[in-house]
Amino acid sequence: MALERCDVEKLAHLARLGLDDAQINSSTASLNAAINMINAMQAVNTDGITPLANPLEANQRLRPDTVTESNHRDDYQALAPAVENGLYLVPKVID
Amino acid sequence: MQWETVIGLEIHAQLATNTKIFSGSATAFGAEPNSHASLIDLAMPGTLPVLNAAAVRMACMFGLAVDAHIAEYNIFARKNYFYPDLPKGYQTSQMDDPIVGLGHLDIALDDGSIKRVNITRAHLEEDAGKSLHEDFSGMTGIDLNRAGTPLLEIVSEPELSNAKEAVAYAKAIHTLVRYLNICDGNMAEGSFRCDCNVSVRPKGQTKLGTRTEIKNVNSFRFIERAINHEIQRQIELIEDGGKVTQETRLYDPNKDETRSMRSKEEANDYRYFPCPDLLPVHIPREMLEELRTHLPELPTQKRERFEKDFGLSTYDASVLSASREMANYFEVVEKTCADAKLATNWVMGELSSLLNKENLDITQSPVSAEQLGGMLVRIKDNTISGKIAKMVFEAMAAGEGDADQIIEQRGLKQVTDSGAIEAMLDEVLATNAEQVEQYRASDENKRGKMFGFFVGQAMRASKGKANPQQVNELLKQKLDQ
């Protein structure tokens, strides 16, 4: 499997990346190089081997269900470009 | 052509944890906007999620309650899409290895039959924030208090065959999560939401038709109406030579119709992959065994016990076991009066209509279960008649005290002394001598209605306090003399 230029354009759109022509070309080439490596790995017989979900041989640590965060809204909102009535304001979106 | 409907539901139940699924922020509803949104919830760079143990336990409890397979490991995945109320640019969810695997739930249908509905899976995920589109100078306001609230998404197999069954299933899940105390079930606040997948196919065809998904329906009544509307729309579309397109639709309760959400091209390409920030979650077998011992009696078990021990119909038993609170109330009434039939009639009759009228739920009932049970004892021991009991019940509802106090204060004690009743009847018959003659002169089939007249007069004369059975018997004797 290899990526076409249009696949990369679609992926860039989904990831909201604005790539110019040259970047689309170079991205297509480097992504295809990565896919070639994946293809080579897929040729290895992995029957009966559990997929590795994470390289650390550990399990997820769980947190007790206790409130540990307090309200720092004013500090966080000082960084936001626009706020009103405690809300973060963003360009209008309607689905 | 005969059509057949196939429905599957995806239910999102907000888990009743104190904190969010990946952060220590409170989950309380109705707080000041963004006051429960920490750096993790805001997706600030450098923050890492830590999974809430209570959310894991609650999901496992649900799994045990629907007899599901719970794998030893489950894995979180990223579901990628961009929307301003999803600060990370992905929703942390589960894809290939959900916490709860295949299970099932038995639901009681209106006709009293039981249907087993298979549950494909239930997985943990985080809720998004809220977008407010009111006018903020042409901008959208974002409140991230809800972002990161733990959700259990419960996915049914496409096995429901009409809107009523879909509602019965949704209600059964609603009852179950409240019994388990893992979700408050508040649909108005969005704690329990439902997506309905609907398709139609010619009767007998095995291949499924193209489905549409109706998003975020938030009441049982709307689930039924939205599905029925969508079935009708699809059938008409196909019969007119059209084709159903797979799409997401919204139900508009005001117009009673579903409409296509503005089609978001490529929006369904979520590019799931395992979340590198979270390790596989291990569910030790001992934890499941420990949780199993803490499971309450489940709605199905309770319904079956009510049917078996109290001889109730499936319908009555499912109404009375619809919530833990309702079931507890009924059981106290039953225990106090030791008469399941009488308890059922009063709880489902007078009490339910009082609660409906006052718009109260069972926990707010102005008449306690002990009070109602106590009053039923007085019906059983013939202190009061069923008719007088309604008066006593109203007085209890108005806060006038227990049944015994009210009976005493208002002098409602039933007259069972047959001598006194006879004397009263003699008086009634003497006053209505003309009617007595007419009665005696008429034939058998006309007497029924006339007999009712005398009973009415007698009950009025006794101010409703005479024992009705005795009045009936003695009156019959006297008239037939």
Short description:
Chain A contains three helices and three strands, in the order H-H-E-H-E-E. Chain A is mostly helical and 95 residues long.
Low-confidence stretches of chain B: none
Mean pLDDT of chain B: 91
Helix content of chain B: 40-55%
Mean pLDDT value of chain A? 90
Helix content of chain A: 25-40%
Percent range for β-strand residues of chain B: 15-25%
Write the element-wise H/E pattern of chain A from the N-terminal end onward. HHEHEE
User: What is the total tally of β strands of chain B?
Assistant: 16
Largest interface: A-B, 38 and 53 residues
| Oligomeric assembly | heterodimer
Helix- and strand-based class of chain B? alpha+beta
How much strand of chain A?
A: 5-15%
Number of separate helices of chain B: 15
Low-confidence stretches of chain A: none
Cα end-to-end separation of chain B: 68 Å
How many whole angstroms does the radius of gyration of chain B measure?
30 Å
Using only CA atoms, what is the Rg of chain A?
22 Å
Q: Separation of termini of chain A?
A: 34 Å
Topology, please?
The complex is a heterodimer of chains A (95) and B (481).
Chain A: H1 5-14, H2 21-42, E1 62-63, H3 73-77, E2 83-84, E3 87-91
Antiparallel strand pairs in A: 2-3
Chain B: E1 3-14, E2 51-52, H1 53-65, E3 73-74, E4 77-80, E5 90-93, E6 103-108, E7 114-126, E8 130-136, E9 139-143, E10 150-156, H2 163-179, E11 192-202, E12 212-217, H3 220-239, E13 248-252, E14 257-260, E15 273-274, E16 281-282, H4 285-294, H5 299-310, H6 314-320, H7 324-337, H8 340-358, H9 369-380, H10 386-397, H11 403-410, H12 418-431, H13 433-441, H14 444-461, H15 468-479
Parallel strand pairs in B: 12-13
Antiparallel strand pairs in B: 1-10, 1-11, 3-16, 4-5, 4-15, 6-7, 7-10, 8-9, 11-12, 13-14
Helix pairs in contact in B: 2-3, 5-6, 7-8, 7-9, 9-10, 12-14, 12-15, 14-15
